[in-house]
Every structure is written in structure tokens, then in C-alpha cells.
Amino acid sequence: MTPDGSAYHHGDLRAALLAEAAAMIDEAGTSSVTMRAIGRRLGVSRSAAYRHFADKSALLVAVAAAGFDRLRDRLEAVGAGAPGAGIERLRQVGEEYVRFALENPGHYRLMYGKEAVTREDRPELREAANALFDELVRIVQTHQRSGTIERRDPHLQAYVAWGAVHGLASLLIEGQILTAVDADELIRQTTSTLLDGMRAGRRPT
Q1: CATH of domain 56-199
Q2: Which of 102, 128, 164, 176 could serve as 171's disulfide partner, Cβ 3.0–4.6 Å?
Q3: pLDDT along the chain (205 residues), means of 10
Q4: CB neighbours (10 Å) of residue 98?
Q5: How much is the pTM?
Q6: Is-same-fold flag (1-52; 56-199)?
């Protein structure tokens, strides 16, 4: 690796900066990320990093946006072919959401927490977050058409499902569940209870 980062192709260095920043955030939070530190870890000059991101804020916005893209891709992969798998595939989508947060706690906090830059001021971040929600709506609509879950407003149903899994993910990564629990069983119980309320043909309470 040369000091100016010339051993990287243009797109490779940007991707490497995003991946390294995400790793640093998970290790020690956003305060650990500086253009100098990330350049040192990658073996490139600070100026090479600045050719891709104007400053740390721009880098963090891109890292958060990449997180939404990664999560969307994972949910899309799990949800592929969902109609044939019924409610079980939909439950797996919910579990995958929580597991992403547990595997990438710092990155997840950046995506949703107060450390993140206001989305409304950052089109790249807003569009990535919206694309993730659109994928949740699409998954809900797919299961509605197959008769797996009730045909209600798909956006409202997506918000209900999102609220449940996001709430559980946040509680787990912030250490707010103080009693000894089996995290895997808690995730399964949460998603199962959520889907029992959305299942088509259930008796009204």
C-alpha cells in the first residue's frame, strides 16, 4: 500500500473506508473515528480519505446509509420466496432484523440513535432509510397477497412490526434487559407473538 492509497481502486478505497469506519464504531463508538485514524488503519494517507469524504460527518452519514442498505439486503434475502414458506419465513425476517443489530451494535446505534446526523438534512441517509422501510412494506404486502397475514394498511402493519423488532433490538444492545434471559428465545417469542396478532383468520379479541 502506498501512502496516498494508490494501491486501491477508486471504488475499493471508498468501500474500505466505510467498512473500516463501521468496524471502529462497533469497537469504540463514533468518537474513535477520525480521518487520520482510519487512514492509519488502512495504510493510506489522510488526504486519500478526504478525496472520498469531505469530513468525518460526511463519512458517518455514508456509514449509516450503508448500514440501512446492508440491513435491507439481508431482509430481502430472507424474505425471498416468502409466500411459499408462510408465516415461518415472515418470522425469520423479524429475527434477522434483531440479529443484525446484535451483530453490529455500534453501526445500528449510528443508523437510529442521536449520534446520527438528522436524516432530513441528508438525502443519502434519508433515501437509504426509506428504502429499508419500503422493503418492510413490500414483505408485508407479499404476505397479505398470499393470505398469510390480514389485509390491513400495509404501511401501518410495517410500522407495527418494525416497532416491535426495533424496540427489542434496542433493549438488547443497550443492556436494558437486566434479568437473565435466553436472547434467542426472547427473539423467537417476540416475533411469534407479533405475528400471532397479524395472522389472517385469527379470532378477534
Answers
A1: 1.10.357.10
A2: 176
A3: 52 88 90 90 88 89 93 87 66 93 92 66 86 92 88 94 95 88 92 88 57
A4: 27
A5: 0.83
A6: no
